Every structure is written in structure tokens, then in C-alpha cells.
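The pair is listed for reference:
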Amino acid sequence: MSDEKAAIREVIENWVLWRDAGDWDRFATVWHDDGWMTATWFQGPARKFIEVSRAGFESGVSILHFLGGFTCDVAGTRAISQTKMTINQRALVEGVMVDVVCTGRFYDFLEKRGHWGIVRRQPVYEKDRMDPVDPAATLKLDQAHLAQFPEGYRHLAYLQSKNGFTIKGNLPGLRGTEVETLYREGAAWLNGSPTAGKPL
């Protein structure tokens, strides 16, 4: 792996480790000042994402991440990285404590401005599932409520919406126009586009 790609991989790993550990000062360093974060439950500037993530962490919200394979395209001071990941969230749903695991990718627009940092993060949501923490528990979901969310993050959105979050629809999945648009935006970023696509 090249030195540049290794440095980018370190940024991606630090994002997960520092965010999940609540190390907010260091978490802020993985972003550039104009960084933008999109998630099922949040869309906005990275600085605001840090604030709301910290508030959730301190109030007991349980959202953790795990990383897998990594690939990266570098063009001068620009890069697009993709990293396999899981989002794990635990909460009460319909009176039952559950875990949701959502598998996907972090699709990151990065730039080197003295150091590599994230300009835009757009998760790609590929598939998810929900399981009771107690395997003997009986869980009954509202099928109509579940069906209103995209397939790739349906159960994650169900849990989050039932716990007071407003969920954004039409986020990129494994296939479809949303992820195809994202890929085009990534290619344009590497080719010198003045903006990191159109953040959702």
C-alpha cells in the first residue's frame, strides 16, 4: 500500500475508533472544516455531527462501527475511499431490547490540505437485520412501518424512527440510481470537480 493510501486508511480507522470511544477532540481532526456527514438520522456539517454524536453518546445511545476491507483511488491531492463496515445499534423496539446490524460501505471524499481529511462521507447501505438481545424474547414489528424504509437500512431505520430519530429516505444502497449518482460524483471529484458532489 502506498504512503498516501496508508495515511488515508489511518484517517478512516481513526474516525471509527475515536467516534465510538467518545474521543471528540481527536475525532474532529479527521474532518476538514467544510466536512459534511450524511447518515440515516443526520445530514449536515461535520462540526454539528460531532455535537449531536457527543450528546447521544453522553445520553446512552449505543451506536458502534466495525471496519473491513478498504480500497482507495488517489488523484493528486484528491481521493475516494471505500471501506466495508457494519453499523451496530442497540435499543428498545416494541418493548424488546434488540441489536440491529447494518452492513455497507463508507464512501469518502477526501482531500490533502497539509494532511488528509474527510470532505464528505456518504454511507452506502447494503443490507441489515434485527435480533432480540435475549434470543427467547418475542419481537413483533409493524410491517407497514417497516416497509416504508429502503431495503438496505430498513431495520436500522425502524429502530431509529421508533426511538425519536427522523430518517432520511433514498440513501444509496447496493444497487440503484442513488449509488450510481454517488459513483459519478466520486469520479468527478477525482477529476477536479469544485465540489464533492451534492451531499444528501
Observations:
- The chain has six helices and six strands.
